[in-house]
Amino acid sequence: MNRKGMTLSQHLTESRLCGDGDMAGLLTTLASAAKRISREVNRAGLVDILGFTGEHNVQGEAVCKLDVLAHDMMIDALRPSGHVCALASEEAEHPLFLAPHEPRGPYVVLFDPLDGSSNIDAGITIGTIFSIYRAQSADATLSDLLQSGSRQVAAGYALYGSSTLFVYTAGAGVHSYTLDAGVGEFRLTHENLRMPERGTIYSANEANYPRWCAGVQRYIDALKDPDGPCTYSARYVGSLVADFHRTLLYGGLFLYPADPRDAPNGKLRLLYEAAPLARIAEAAGGRASTGSEDVLSLQPTALHQRVPLFIGSAEDVSAVEASIRQCAEPE
Ligand code: P6P
């Protein structure tokens, strides 16, 4: 049955999620928040909310007004939803645990409210990334937020670009919806997305090349070798959601390796960037690795910890892992 064009609500009703009202409701709440954030992103240039607040977040990054607005909009949507008992955001040093008198539900949500925000003023595609786990009890604790990525019950992102997209997996395929702004509905555009097993695009900030390990350098050199078996194209937006979504659709490899000088543990955050995208990649037939371990197998130890990330087509991720291993082996 061709479900293309179905609204998110219709598709959730059709899917097995209808049996889990909290999950269907939570995804609907997240999609609704994405619509509101999209509206603010799209009019950012028109009202005085561009630029920086002058403050810095827990990551030490300059905070854009839209970052704060997106964070507040996610909290304002999720907290009263009745589907969650704890929330964690890139923009907040500590988690938010809902009090017993608040409408609490079985899930915890970790999110990056506006990933790629350094690109906001340039009008480049940015996004919201979310990760969903089931809490042990409504009286959630930090351990409910520090769960291994393989325990995610759902994960997804909204992409604010030439169109506004909502992409998620809840264990039964990866589905992508496009916002029909005229009626304010997300409509199904890709059901059960599958990532190509191998791609022809690699995506990295090559200014960091001199500080990558030898195995990564050798792998990228091979992709660029005109006499090599496979020459790839390079694409890099500098906005994780945009670079990942292209990789999901077209295949290939996105990599943000560790950089001993500026990012010894990598730059990207495990809990609300790498792990949710890894969940989507694997649900679509791809892979996500730190270069030596599957991202989804990691046991988080801190809310804002960072990891090196190699994510994309299964064969591409396995090939760069092999190159790293070979270079690490004693001569
Ligand atoms: P670099 C954006 O600031 C971000 O967190 C990700 O969205 C993106 O993939 C990465 O940083 C880009 O980092 O060092 O290449 O500017």
Automatic annotation (TrEMBL):
Cofactor(s) this protein cannot do without: Mg(2+)
Matches recorded under Pfam families: FBPase, FBPase_C
Full protein name: fructose-bisphosphatase
Upper taxonomic lineage: Eukaryota, Metazoa, Porifera, Demospongiae, Heteroscleromorpha
Key words of the record: Carbohydrate metabolism, Cytoplasm, Hydrolase, Magnesium, Metal-binding
Residue ranges occupied by any Fructose-1-6-bisphosphatase class 1 C-terminal domain in the UniProt entry: 195-322
MF-aspect GO terms: fructose 1,6-bisphosphate 1-phosphatase activity; metal ion binding
GO cellular component: cytosol
Enzyme Commission number(s): 3.1.3.11
Domain of life: Eukaryota
Enzyme class, broadest EC rank: hydrolase
GO biological process: fructose 1,6-bisphosphate metabolic process; fructose 6-phosphate metabolic process; fructose metabolic process; gluconeogenesis; sucrose biosynthetic process
The reaction(s) this protein catalyses: beta-D-fructose 1,6-bisphosphate + H2O = beta-D-fructose 6-phosphate + phosphate
Pathway: Carbohydrate biosynthesis; Calvin cycle
Family in the record: Belongs to the FBPase class 1 family.
Cross-referenced PANTHER family: FRUCTOSE-1,6-BISPHOSPHATASE-RELATED (PTHR11556), SEDOHEPTULOSE-1,7-BISPHOSPHATASE, CHLOROPLASTIC (PTHR11556:SF35)
Fructose-1-6-bisphosphatase class I N-terminal domain location: 19-191
